[in-house]
Amino acid sequence: xxxxxxxxxxxxxxxxxxxxxxxxxxxxxxxxxxxxxxxxxxxxxxxxxxxxxxxxxxxxxxxxxxxxxxxxxxxxxxxxxxxxxxxxxxxxxxxxxxxxxxxxxxxxxxxxxxxxxxxxxxxxxxxxxxxxxxxxxxxxxxxxxxxxxxxxxxxxxxxxxxxxxxxxxxxxxxxxxxxxxxxxxxxxxxxxxxxxxxxxxxxxxxxxxxxxxxxxxxxxxxxxxxxxxxxxxxxxxxxxxxxxxxxxxxxxxxxxxxxxxxxxxxxxxxxxxxxxxxxxxxxxxxxxxxxxxxxxxxxxxxxxxxxxxxxxxxxxxxxxxxxxxxxxxxxxxxxxxxxxxxxxxxxxxxxxxxxxxxxxxxxxxxxxxxxxxxxxxxxxxxxxxxxxxxxxxxxxxxxxxxxxxxxxxxxxxxxxxxxxxxxxxxxxxxxxxxxxxxxxxxxxxxxxxxxxxxxxxxxxxxxxx
Length: 465
Known about the structure:
This protein has 16 helices and 15 strands. The chain is of the alpha/beta class and 465 residues long. Strand 6 and strand 7 form a beta hairpin.
């Protein structure tokens, strides 16, 4: 079966338990991706001097916080015009995706499958929850209760039905389960019970960390972090040297102030209930029963016969998740995994990341780039895609019309571009729009969430109807 074809994707969706895995690429451009921070945090564990290590690690965590978490605390106010514009791109793409899939799940022809859609994510921001609430969808984030909501993993096993007021007929309605397997910025532990997680509506922990960072910065505690570095071995050694020079320049009193600032920041930061971005996160996930249980749900879900997993904005650089996914794919031959790669380079990165953790013996993990998707369609569908604005640099040799689409006179086919998301959680190359250019400067379609919505999901919805 050529799973990339739209009509085959439609059949897959109609006949399987549908799940998604979202990575940090989908929160771009409003939030930054990790880049080299995870690798640097892991390498920082090898720094021998405790004071140097503390400065380097705290500086890295501070950079991660200000890039990924702090912007979420400003959503209701204090955003710049540029930030508002970027946030609208993310919200718009999420809204389109949830709306389209609500329609798809509602109209699925099989009565043997429920209308539950699981979205697993490593993202810790609260943007998708906001979108689900604004759309007034059945959106389950695992919390029960209103005055003091608490997190319960068994909440994700519920289905929702609507009963007719006249004939007492019941029918399931679509529900989204949102499982944040790395934690969230809006989770905190109950003060009277460390075992339970409650919902931090006002992001009090984020505010506390911001205050700690302000104090640390007023004392010049942190060292600058370059997120564009290519060689992390050199990068961590440069950070260590920078910290060493800083420490040598301090008086005894200044050292005590820096230590106080670091302790204050770390005390606040490590109250967050999340898997921190470093290679030891697997140990953290095993030690915390909530993260262990969420990982178990992910693994068990993929073991169910007749299951599909659509992966977006995720490169599988997370070795633990990559291992779980490969293991499930090998033990469950009925599982179908479709990974959307931002472009050909993104596809190569995903292939390499999965190769590091194992071999997919059942050949049921498919990595699809925009070019793969286009080439899989028949001529009529290719023409329709080009009319929608889909542009590729080249395609199959016998498709002259596709090659013609890359010529300058055909560039009017390109749809209005909006800011793109990254294809993975490692920080792929940035662009200012949903297109990239080929060697002739021709804009090419890439698989941002906007484009996946437009060219894949919306067309599947159209075929179902």
